[in-house]
Amino acid sequence: MESESGIKLLYKSFLKTDADEDIVSGFLTAFHHFSVEEFHQSLESIEMGGLRWTYILEPKYKLLFVAADNKNIKTGIIKGKLNVIENAFIKQYKNIWEKRGETWDGDLNIFLPFHKTLEDYYHQWEEVENVSQIADFFDILGIFQHILILLRNIIEKRMYSKSKELILDHIEEKYNQINKLDEFCEQKELKNISFTKDSWFNLIDINLIKCDKEVVINYLKSMVKCIVNILMEVKTKNNCFKYFSDGRVYAYLYNNMTMLKDLSLDLYFLEVFLIL
After folding, report:
1. Is the pLDDT of residue 202 over 90?
2. What span, in angstroms and rounded, lies between the C-alpha atoms of 152 and 201?
3. Residues 146 and 179 in one domain
4. 8, 1 contact by CB (below 8 A)
5. b/e per residue 112-135 (b: at least 16 CB within 10 A)
6. Does some domain include residue 7?
């Protein structure tokens, strides 16, 4: 949906329901606006109609992504999938946004081909979710995706152009170095984790069936640690503490500490962000 107007750009349901998609879109937008106005933050998840509804706001492109699943499905899993969809949609349609003068106004039929993308992801996830412990892997990917987004926002919003360019140059250099390490270069699926200075990191094309879970996790750990170290080298540790605080990195870690402990990621993130 367009986040400010609530206009529905695309809707796809894999659940059997008689709900009117326009009415549903209106309700979801209303809840989102209420959360922003009353609590000064975007709504992340609600339960309604027997389903768990999860939100992701993308302010740069004025988009609101919403997904729903059964209430017994954890928010982290839904959000991990929604992050994948968000990145795929922006990658496919950001040129449309730019050509239309940074607006989504116009013929909405142009987004209909994305239904096929959603169906492909759905069937892949449906197959993967029958594999033992895959739910934890979804959670882990969702956490790293969120941390990478927060770091991107810090670089975009907190850095002057000279520092930003220097940091991105260093990240690109480290990205290329890590990809050449023996432990990672043999894992073909890691080639689907791409990075460019313009588009940041893209995790959307990882095939969860074919990839080696532990290798992917170690790869993401190495990458995030390198990014944080680069930030601290360029901007000093004290400045970075403020960036991480203002950029809600610490808030995210605190609010998700139980899940981080369950996934054995708590000590890693506490050490990386120098809380320990």
Report:
1. no
2. 9
3. yes
4. yes
5. eebeebbeeeeeebeeeeeeeebb
6. no
CA distance linking residue 141 with residue 81, whole number of Å = 9
Q: Does the structure show a pLDDT above 50 at 132?
A: no
Same domain flag for 138 and 257: yes
Give the CA diameter of the chain. 55
Domain contains 96 = yes
- Residue found by looking up tokens 């956490």 in the block: 143
Rounded to whole angstroms, how far apart are CA atoms 52 and 76?
A: 11
Residue with tokens 């203002």: 246
Q: What average pLDDT is seen over the chain?
A: 84
Alpha carbons 253 and 249: distance in angstroms, whole number: 6
pLDDT in tens, 29-65: 676 666 666 655 666 777 777 788 888 888 889 898 9
Among 128, 145, 175, the domain-final residue is 128
Whether 2 maps to a domain, the answer reads no
**Residue 58 DSSP label:** E
Structural domain that includes position 251: 134-272
pTM: 0.61
- The tokens describing 222, both together, are 């190495």
Of 47, 95, 87, nearest to 63 (Cα)? 87
Of 106, 128, 150, the residue at which a domain comes to its end is: 128
Percentage of residues in the chain with pLDDT exceeding 90? 40
Same domain, residue pair 160 and 118: no
